[in-house]
Amino acid sequence: MSNPSAPAVVVGIDGSKAATQAALWAIDEAVGRDIPLRLVYVIDPLEPSGGDGRAGRQGAAHAALFDVSRAIEATGHPVKVETEVLRGRPLAKLMEESRSAVMVCVGSIGLNHARRGEGSLAATLAGAALCPVAVIQASPGALAAPKVNRVVAEVNNGSVLRHAFEEARLRKVPLRALFLRIAETPTESDDGNRLAQAQLSRRLARWTRLYPGVAVESAIIRGHACRYLAANAKPDQLYVTDSHAAQLCNVYVAGCSVLTVRSGNL
Questions:
Q1: How far is residue 7's CA from residue 37's CA, in Å, rounded to a whole number?
Q2: What is the pLDDT of residues 103-152, one digit of tens each?
Q3: Roughly how many angstroms between the first and final C-alpha of the chain, as a whole number?
Q4: What does DSSP assign to residue 107?
Q5: Closest CA to 257 of 71, 155, 107, 32
Q6: Are 96 and 51 a contacting pair, CB within 8 Å?
Q7: Which among 84, 261, 240 is positioned nearest to 175, based on CA atoms?
Q8: If you ran DSSP here, which 8-state letter would residue 258 be given?
Q9: What is the pLDDT of residues 228-239, one digit of tens each?
C-alpha cells in the first residue's frame, strides 16, 4: 500500500532504461532519509494506445513498475518501495506528487522523448515543482545506478549550497564550489581574484563547519556557469542549481545529472 501524502522520494517510471537508472540513483536518497521510494507510472489518456486498449496499457504500467522494483531489490539496499499507477497528464501528476515529495527524480531521457509535442517534461517539471527535482543523466552502459563522483554548485545561493553539501556527504564525494566573476579590465584581474577568493571563503565557511567530512574544491570562473558546464560537464557529475537559473541556462543538455532547488526548498 502507498500513501501519496506521506514524505517519499518519487521517481517517474515510463518503462525506459533511463527511468530505471533514475530509480536506482534515488535509492540512496530514500535510504539516507529513512523514507519510502515511491515509483509512479502515469498513463496519459490522451496518448494513442496503439490498439492495446486500457487493459493493455494498465498491464504495461504494472509490468514496468515490477521490473524496476526487481532491479531495486537486486541491489540489496534496505529501502521500502511503493508503486502506483496514475491516470492523467504526466506533468500534472508529477507536479501533484511534488506537493508532498521530498524529491522527484526522472531520467534525462525517456519521459522527455515519450512526451513529444510538449517539450522537455523533465525540464518543465524541474522549473515548476514544489520540491527539489533530480534529472539523472542516463548511462549507456549496464543497467545500474549512474555514479556520482563529484557535486558541483555555485556559492551564491544558500539553499543550493545546503543541498549540494548534503548530496556530497550522502554520496561521499567532493564538492566543487564555483564563484562567478567578470573582470572588467586586465589590470583589475589580480585584485578581483583576491576579492573573489575572500568572498568565496566567507560564503563557504559556515557550510564547511556544518559538513566537516565533505572535501571542498573551489574554483573562480569568469562568465556564467553555462559556459563552465559546457566545457567541463561529465556524466559522473551532479550539478546542483536554482530552478530558475537552470531554466535560463538550460543545464539539462549539459551532459551531467542536475538537481534543481527552489530558493524556498530547505
A1: 9
A2: 999 998 755 444 443 447 888 888 889 999 999 988 776 677 888 999 99
A3: 28
A4: E
A5: 107
A6: no
A7: 240
A8: E
A9: 887 888 889 999
- Give, in order, the Cα–Cα distances in Å from 17 to each of 90, 137, 191, 224: 18, 11, 50, 32
Q: Which residue has better confidence, 110 or 92?
A: 92
Q: How far apart are CA 2 and CA 8, in angstroms?
A: 10
**What pLDDT is attached to residue 131?**
95
Helices 121-128 and 90-97: angle between axes, nearest 10 degrees: 30
**221's grid cell:** 570562473
Domains of the chain with CATH codes: 8-136 (3.40.50.620), 150-261 (3.40.50.620)
Sequence-ordered strand ranges (E) for 14-128: 37-43, 81-87, 103-107
The cell for 76 is 540489496
Q: CB burial class (10 A; 0-12, 13-18, 19+) of residue 55?
A: exposed
Helices 158-171 & 189-210, crossing angle to 10 degrees?
Answer: 60
